[in-house]
Amino acid sequence: MSLNRNALSKIEEILATAHRFCKITSLHTCYCSNNTGYNYFHKQLCSRIGAIPYSFSSSSSNSHSSAPHSASKMREQFVERDDDFGWTRGTGSEQSRILSSDYSLYSWGVEKCNPDGYNEFGESEEVEVGKSDEDSDDDFRDLNSFDRNIERGEVRSRIEVDEDEIKHPLVREICRLLDFRAAWTPELESNLKRLLRSLKPSQVCAVLRAQSDERVALKFFYWADRQWRYRHDPIVYHAMLKVLSKTKLCQGAKRILGLMVRRKIEIWPEDFGCVMVSFSRAGHLRKALQVLTLMQRTGVELDISICNTAINVLVEGKRLEKALRFSERMKVVGIEPNVITYNCLIKGYCERNQVEDATKLIEEMPVRGCSPDKVSYYTVMGFLCKERKIDKLKGLVEKMLNESKLLPDQVTYNTIIHMLSKHGYAEEALGFLREAEEKGFRVDKVGHTAIVNCFCQEGKIDRAKDVVDEMLLKGCSPDVVTYTAVLNGFCRVGEVDQAKKLLQQMYKHGCKPNCVSYTALLNGLCRRGNSSEAREMMNMSEGWWTPNAVTYSVIMHGFRREGMLSEACEIVREMIRKGFYPSPVEINLLIQSLCQVGRTDQARKLMEECLKKGCAVNVVNFTTVIHGFCQMGDLDAALSVLDDMYLNNKHPDEVTYTTVIDALGRKGRINEAVEMTKKMLHCGLLPTPVTYRSLIHHFCQQGKVDDLLKLMEKMLLRENCRTAYNQVIEKLCCFGYVDEAYELLGKVLRTASRVDANSCHILIRSFLKNGNPLGSYRVACRMFNRNLVPDLKLCEEVSKKLILLQKSDEADRLMLRFVERGHVPPEGKQAAI
């Protein structure tokens, strides 16, 4: 039966709608290697209406070639617009190319089913677990398939965002609104939406870069992307990836790259480099290298910059051998290493204390067609400064001049002076300063200040003052940083009165002290126990200087160390009112001090106030409060805080669960402790050694061995603890359950280690203590059978007890085992044998 044009058009409309529906719901359309899901859906649908389905080839040999062609043909027939999933109108090869790239990175943008067990990087999860980063070269396969004859295009111009955009009123207002994220209201969100539509793309980038917390920047990116009548400019995506490259938020970076693929935004090699660095910072070295494969799938050309990023990632991941092999592969495919490549390898050598190899590589660089620059030498100089190898450092400076024709200039000497000062070698730095001045170079006040600060850190205040006097004689006037370094040095050695006098002298020399100067003085007062005086001085700061977050933290810790916890809490509240947010570490130190003196309720109240005001309260802070309530015996309050963690989207960790489990066990609520342990395992958390010790102690105390063994089987499936059964036996012996401990001896003797021998000795002593030397004899025999030799003196005591019980045969057999092993018993026992 033939179909007319109207019927065919209707069928095409049905197919297009069905395909769009399945694309949205990911039903039967996940992109697998053989496209079985896609073919299944269309064959079933088309068979109902008697039409020929549009399907991909299922042949494994043609799967890569036929899929794009069929996709292009299908897109010419059925085109629907769906901004969320990247569909767009158009025909031709360009559409085929876009669809092909969309499918190759489909797993990066949307959730997909994964029937074949492949991860988002296209590799099997099982294979990845078993592979070794040291021996596997599969990460370089993209270099093997690189087309060395490809024409190098001109480097595209990058859009640079003006730094002055951060000072723009609109940008500053949006940043102010984002700071109120903890107390968000519909009115604030309405204002933010209105301002968002007035921002230029460069100003949106400025907002992202201005956030101190990159997670806030990422949330703002997602929020803005969902707003009506607004769409991110391409440079915003590039800016967001650059921000994420400085963090461990690799999943966020991966998602941003997936959005760029789906929305057909041009991706630069630098974007893949940002994702690679983010994965590297998060500790996923293998996934970082697999970004190169994804880059190749999208058709982005490999260049020297992305290769240098890969080498730097390997070096930072302590994989120098792989970095060297990667650089050799680069040459094979026609990408010549440049000076940045070699500098990364030199850095890798230095981090492994192979300074000779680093120096040798510098000597070989001209032969390899790339001359070293000053950074190459500075990298090795930094290592020599750290190791205080001054003679080799001077030799490297001469080699830099004679062999590489690089003149040591003022920058060179400043670099050496700063590196030596950083590592605490003030005298050596002062020697290079003299040498620089003899050669006619003028070291500025920054170099002198570095030496002064180094002397002060070492407590050599007199030497620091001599350097300051030399500065005055040379006409190099000390600035506020120099005086502050000396002032801090006085405070470090406890001479606060001298620090006060120096503060007055700074005014006489026309150098006005700043916030850092006063904060150093206040820190000295707090260290001497004069926190109240420091507080009064800070209150009198108006018109003279403005305290910052460090100033408030210094006084808060001073009150905390002196035990004036109420004053410390008031400082934290004042700090928050002024717009300074204490860090989680500072909050934890204060609430820990409150819990130690039994003021856990006040600690909880302070933590909740900080949380409401927008402070970064983390799981450690909650755990400290929970531990405080557990120490007080108020378990109900501890469980209440645990519930608050879930309400505030703070997920408990192993320490949190272990603290609650131990408290439940001490209260005798074993069943609740078991349920809490199962909950911890269900959350994917691994039990710690402390978790095992706590559970074993409380279960053995009540003699519930069977319940303990059932629970331990589940725990050992997640995290193996070799000494778990040893601890059970020892605890059972401690609480007098010797027979139960003997039944578990077989689980301990499987490994026959020294720890197992100690557990057996404890069991032998327990049997002797209970007047059962036959039990001790059986334990000793089982040790011999497992090639473990018991303690000779302990077995002599067992033998004596057996003789007293008229068990001389067992006593003789026990000592005979020692003779067979070559352990000669005492003379008295030889006669008995």
From TrEMBL:
The UniProt entry, under InterPro entries, shows: PPR-containing_protein, PPR_rpt, TPR-like_helical_dom_sf
Keyword vocabulary terms for this entry = Repeat
Keyword Repeat among UniProt keywords: yes
Cite the repeat ranges for PPR: 303-337, 338-372, 409-443, 444-478, 479-513, 548-582, 583-617, 618-652, 653-687, 688-718
* Domain of life, source organism: Eukaryota
A Pfam match is PPR_1
Q: Which PROSITE patterns match?
A: PPR
The chain's coiled-coil residues are: none
Instruction: Tell me which family the UniProt entry assigns to this protein.
Output: Belongs to the PPR family. P subfamily.
Q: What is this protein called?
A: Pentatricopeptide repeat-containing protein
- Classification of source organism: Eukaryota, Viridiplantae, Streptophyta, Embryophyta, Tracheophyta
